[in-house]
Design goal:
By secondary structure, this protein is an alpha/beta fold. The chain has 3 domains: 165 residues, Leucine-rich repeat, LRR (right-handed beta-alpha superhelix), CATH 3.80.10.10; 139 residues, Ribonuclease Inhibitor (Leucine-rich repeat, LRR (right-handed beta-alpha superhelix)), CATH 3.80.10.10; 47 residues, no CATH class. Helix content is 21%, strand content 14%. The strands form 6 sheets. It has a 7-stranded mixed beta sheet, with no helix packed on it. The longest helix is centred in the first third of the chain and has 48 residues. The radius of gyration is 35 Å and the shape is flat. It starts with a helix and ends in a 13-residue tail after the last helix. It holds the Pfam family LRR_8. Keywords: Leucine-rich repeat, Repeat, Signal. One of its GO terms (cellular component) is plasma membrane. This is LRRCT domain-containing protein. InterPro entries: Cys-rich_flank_reg_C (IPR000483), Leu-rich_rpt (IPR001611), Leu-rich_rpt_typical-subtyp (IPR003591), LRR_dom_sf (IPR032675), LRR_TM_domain-containing (IPR050541).
Length: 445
């Protein structure tokens, strides 16, 4: 009997094993599914984390530049106020593409490949003030795409191949409204040939929808000459202040036609060797100019003409030896001057810079260290100038002055001398010669 019971139990156990195997495989399958699901969520989170989220001036930014994106992700934070999507692969702006970002104030889409904007692409962006669409492939669009943006203040459309035909009529009319002075500046027609190079803001809109003659017809005026396009793919940032970033572009000269409303320009890490007169003349609101890490060797007089409000000038890490006389005369409100890592030559030519700094005590400066000649290498330029004045022969210091009034001449020179720390100091001869001592005639009385 016991043997029979044992056999029956073995049969029951054997028959139950396949069923447990099926359950085990199913369980394993479910586990694998859960693992795959977690993997997908991790991938999605990783893709989101590739964008940099940060706070600046109390506002939230999401930086998704250079991510090869073709669209926006639905799991991005909804409360961002500034979305940076420059240098991606976006081609079409679809309806309601940004509708979830209702707090958005600025949207940077420059340097993509956008060729079409659907009518409802910007729906929901009632707080948007800044839209950057420059450096794309847009040929035409209408005013309707901008209607959901009642607070739009800055719109950049330049460097797009605009087709100036009748389909562009409503957009151009909107841009030409006087109150829209910061919308669409610098955008130009690419076609037709007759209008190539003309600014959208200055077109005769009434003629766009008229029937045109064929190109080459008798009496047809020639298209205006188009200036060579020197401006590289500089990037414009609107927040926290208006910045034109042209750094690391391989430039050999300052770009032509700089925007007139720009506040900061970054031209660092290029190969600019020479600053010519009036290259920044149109950028009258400029407050910061960064020219560091170029090969800058020579700055012409009037190179900084018009920069009345410039407060910071960075000329560090260049090849400057000295400044020509009056180079800095237009910088009335300069407060910071960076001059580090330039091979300053301590000779007669360096005196102008020290003279200018002495008469502008509000300017904070760094980096004035002699590189040449060898006997002054490593000296502060100010110390070199003191030595230069202290060792100047007496006959040269008083050259052209009446010896009967030598004491009076010394006092006047002391008030004007470059260093102003020694009672025997005088201006270097070239500067002294500019102010002849005509007062010496008082000896006759």
């Amino acid at each position: 009997m016991r043997l029979l019971v044992t056999l029956l139990l073995l049969l029951l156990v054997h028959s139950a094993e396949p069923r447990r195997g099926h359950r085990s495989r199913a369980a394993n399958g479910n586990a694998a599914g859960r693992v795959r699901g977690r993997g997908r969520s991790r991938v999605m989170r990783r893709q989101t984390q590739e964008c940099k989220e940060y706070m600046e001036a109390g506002e939230k930014y999401l930086d998704c530049q250079d991510k090869q994106l073709t669209s926006v992700m639905q799991d991005w934070p909804k409360d961002i106020q500034h979305l940076l999507l420059a240098r991606n692969k976006i081609q079409v702006l679809r309806d309601n593409m940004f509708a979830q970002f209702t707090r958005l104030k600025s949207l940077d889409l420059q340097q993509n490949d956008i060729s079409m904007v659907e009518e409802g692409a910007f729906s929901g962006l009632s707080q948007l003030t800044t839209l950057l669409l420059q450096h794309n492939s847009l040929k035409t669009t209408s005013e309707d795409v901008l209607l959901p943006l009642p607070r739009l203040t800055y719109l950049r459309l330049y460097d797009n191949p605009w087709s100036c035909h009748c389909s562009l009529d409503s957009l151009i009319r909107m841009l030409q409204v006087p109150s829209n002075r910061n919308l669409g500046n610098y955008a130009k027609c690419e076609e037709p040939l007759l209008l190539k190079g003309q600014k959208l803001k200055k077109l005769n809109v009434d003629s766009l929808c008229e029937k045109k003659e064929e190109d080459g017809a008798i009496g047809r005026p020639k298209p205006p000459p188009v200036k060579p396009k020197f401006t590289p793919m500089c990037q414009t940032y609107m927040f926290p202040s208006l910045l034109l970033d042209c750094s690391n572009k391989g430039l050999t000269h300052v770009p032509a036609d700089l925007p007139s409303d720009i506040v900061k320009i970054n031209l660092s890490n290029n190969s600019i060797k020479h600053l010519r007169p009036k290259q920044f003349l149109l950028s009258k609101d400029l407050k910061l100019l960064n020219l560091s890490n170029n090969s800058l060797l020579h700055i012409d007089t009037a190179a900084f003409a018009g920069l009345l409000y410039l407060r910071e000038l960075d000329l560090s890490n260049n090849s400057l030896h000295y400044f020509q006389y009056s180079v800095l005369e237009d910088l009335y409100f300069l407060r910071k001057l960076s001059l580090d890592n330039n091979p300053w030559i301590c000779d007669y030519n360096i005196h102008y810079l020290i003279y200018w700094l002495k008469h502008h005590p509000g300017v904070s400066y760094t980096g004035l260290i002699c590189s040449e000649p060898q006997e002054f290498s490593g000296w502060r330029v100010e110390d070199y100038v003191k030595t230069y004045n202290g060792e100047c022969p007496k006959d040269k210091q008083t050259e052209g002055a009446d010896t009967g009034q030598g004491g009076q001449g010394d006092l006047d020179n002391e008030a004007l001398e470059v260093v102003g720390e020694t009672t025997e100091g005088h201006l270097p001869r070239p500067l002294k010669e500019k102010t002849p001592n005509t007062f010496e005639i008082i000896r006759l009385s």
